[in-house]
Write a structure and sequence with these properties.
There is one protein chain. Helix 4 runs parallel beside helix 5, helix 6 crosses helix 8 and helix 6 packs across helix 10. The chain is globular. The chain is built from eleven helices and 14 strands. It is α/β, with parallel strands linked by helices.
Length: 336
């Protein structure tokens, strides 16, 4: 049965993929995006696209009143953990207050389920592998904002009966990623640097580890959740199991791009050194949708797309609020 669905961040990376899966399931999809990090041509044909921000409470109220959504998939966010230290107001406005606008409207219009993409940034450090029953201890404002929304959804369910599903994806990569963003998405950054004849830049010694997750192991799971009521009011890690060092990743990316692995190490930044999570719970509920794409296979697929899309010239973030302790390479971007 076709449902009326709002997808925020529909022009972004994960959001555009979730839209495709929802359309395949014959749902009617309205996509909202302010195009600050996404691209209009990434929005799949068949989505009714609205350009605007989740921070615009008047617009959000209007969309809900006009469309009577059955489900909301909230993927709009500025997901730059490291940069969030230096853009606190921007971070909390977009990632927390914008989410509250959507939660308020969902309660007022009796939405059946609110699907939220959080992040493993909520866990912080020293909780490996990260499991859903661990007590979150976020280390950066981005993770703090995500966890605050998780708590608000729990409260909204208990107080108003709003069902929710929370996903905590991590280090997702693949086709339609914004490879021009200089502050996030390391695989996209590496590919963009290679296509511009530049060395791949790594903060610190490169021995920090992440489990890099191919989009086809993440987006189908998120899209299917609204039709699986047993997943309601629960939290799921979703993504790859095997962690790799950033140095290992650089070699995989260079090979996929047909380039020599040239690395430039930058001064270390303040970040969680090792971050990877367990996914037994996701497999229990969504195991039929998880293929377990290897890093080599996923990066190779993304490389084919990236070469066709070509390099992108990303702009420095213009709204830096705090310059104290800003990583030197980012400070140089602003100066340049």
């Amino acid at each position: 049965m076709s449902s009326r669905i709002l997808v925020t961040g529909a022009a972004g990376f994960i959001g555009s993929h979730v839209c495709r899966h929802l359309l395949k399931a014959n749902h009617r999809v309205v996509g909202l995006d302010d195009l600050s990090g996404g691209f209009r041509d990434y929005v799949p044909e068949g989505v009714h696209f609205v350009e605007g921000s989740v921070t615009d409470a008047t617009l959000v109220k209007k969309l809900f009143a006009e469309n009577h959504f059955d489900y909301v998939f909230h993927l709009a966010a500025y997901a730059a953990e490291g940069l969030s230290h230096f853009i606190k107001h921007f971070n909390y406005t977009n990632n927390l207050l914008g989410s509250v606008n959507l939660i308020n409207a969902s309660i007022n219009h009796s939405v059946k389920c609110f699907v939220f993409t959080s992040s493993i940034a909520v866990y912080g450090k020293n909780q490996l592998p990260m499991t859903e029953d661990a007590v979150p201890q976020p280390e950066d404002p981005y993770g703090i904002a995500k966890y605050a929304v998780e708590l608000d959804l729990k409260e909204a369910h208990e107080m108003f009966g709003l069902n929710y599903v929370v996903f905590r994806p991590h280090n997702v990569y693949g086709e339609f990623q914004n490879i021009g963003d200089r502050y996030r998405n390391v695989i996209g950054i590496f590919m963009n640097q290679i296509m511009q004849g530049q060395p791949m830049t790594i903060f610190g010694d490169g021995e920090q580890t992440r489990a890099f997750s191919y989009i086809d192991d993440v987006a189908p799971v998120i899209a299917a959740s609204s039709e699986r009521p047993k997943s309601y009011n629960q939290i799921f890690n979703v993504g790859a199991d095997k962690p790799y060092s950033v140095n290992e990743l650089a070699n995989v990316v260079a090979k996929a791009m047909g380039a020599k692995s040239q690395i430039k190490h930058l001064e270390a930044r303040n970040e969680v050194v090792h971050a990877y999570s367990a996914h037994e719970k996701a497999r229990q509920y969504f195991g039929d949708l998880i293929k377990g794409v290897s890093l080599e296979e996923g990066v190779a697929k993304m490389a084919v797309w990236a070469k066709k899309a070509g390099a992108r010239q990303g702009k420095p973030f213009e709204g830096i609020e705090i310059r104290k302790n800003l990583p030197p390479s980012w400070a140089a971007l602003l100066a340049g």
